[in-house]
């Protein structure tokens, strides 16, 4: 009973924690709110297209691919001497002052952060930089990347804005339809209930059974705990038959 209460309390706490606006990450670039609504950015960049890019006033460039790791330098006439972006990136910055690249984000380090009254952000953090990409729902068919001018300075923190139709909320999981597991559990419950009702009716009406004898296959249900115990011991012994001392009444004991 205590375990059941603890499980119910934990489920309620989890639902409450998700109901506060947290978008739970369910993929490399997708997340889901408690009500089944969420965001999936996988269609932002088709397989044959290059990363989205934007340029700062001082010539720095940002290259963004939210759902696909890129292993090449964005511009053919530039080199990556330190190999930061050549090792794979989701978010890469070309620093105009040093004429080199800086890897700001990787796909497996993508995090979703939901801020009250400020929308949803993709965040990327490494040893030196913290970069966030604000997701803005746009009804245009294409996606565009912009740099927030007020956030850009000589520090290591940058804020980008992604305008995209794929940043709009959509149904990630439809709770109105039962899942496969739910359907199987319902079918199992109905089958067990029908089995007992039909068995009790047959035993009581046609065989004249009363009391416990009305339960169908009563001997099986009485022996079930022992069978489960024997099966558990069998598995615990590595699927080997447990050796037991012979009964004193058997031929081997004599």
Description:
- The protein is an alpha+beta fold.
- It has two domains: 24-171, Cation-dependent Mannose-6-phosphate Receptor, Chain A (Distorted Sandwich); 180-237, no CATH class.
- The chain is 24% helix and 25% strand.
- It has helices at residues 2-18, 180-205, 218-236; strands at 24-27, 30-32, 37-40, 52-55, 61-64, 91-95, 100-105, 111-115, 119-125, 130-137, 144-147, 157-164, 170-171.
- A hairpin with a 4-residue loop joins strand 9 and strand 10.
- The radius of gyration is 31 Å and the shape is elongated.
- 19% of the residues are buried.
- Residues 1-19 form the signal peptide.
- It is found in: Preautophagosomal structure membrane.
- InterPro entries: Autophagy-rel_prot_27 (IPR018939), Man6P_isomerase_rcpt-bd_dom_sf (IPR009011).
């Amino acid at each position: 009973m205590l375990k059941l209460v603890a499980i119910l309390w934990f489920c309620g706490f989890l639902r409450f924690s998700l109901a506060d606006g947290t978008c739970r990450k369910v993929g490399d670039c997708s997340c889901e709110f408690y009500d089944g609504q969420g965001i999936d950015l996988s269609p932002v960049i088709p397989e044959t297209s290059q990363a989205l890019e934007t340029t700062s006033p001082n010539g720095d460039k940002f290259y963004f691919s939210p759902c696909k790791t890129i292993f090449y330098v964005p511009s053919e006439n530039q080199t990556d001497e330190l190999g930061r972006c050549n090792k794979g990136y989701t978010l890469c910055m070309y620093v105009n002052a040093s004429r080199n690249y800086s890897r700001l984000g990787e796909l497996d380090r993508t995090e979703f952060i939901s801020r009250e009254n400020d929308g949803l952000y993709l965040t990327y953090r490494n040893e030196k930089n913290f970069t966030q990409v604000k997701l803005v729902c746009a009804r245009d068919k294409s996606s565009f990347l912009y740099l927030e001018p007020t956030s850009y300075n000589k520090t290591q923190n940058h804020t980008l804005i992604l305008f995209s139709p794929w940043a709009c909320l959509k149904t990630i999981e439809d709770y109105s339809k039962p899942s496969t597991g739910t359907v199987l559990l319902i079918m199992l419950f109905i089958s067990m209930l029908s089995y007992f009702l039909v068995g009790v009716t047959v035993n009581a009406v046609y065989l004249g059974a009363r009391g416990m004898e009305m339960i169908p296959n009563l001997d099986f249900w009485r022996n079930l705990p022992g069978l489960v115990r024997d099966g558990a011991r069998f598995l615990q012994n590595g699927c080997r038959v447990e050796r037991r001392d012979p009964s004193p009444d058997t031929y081997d004991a004599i």
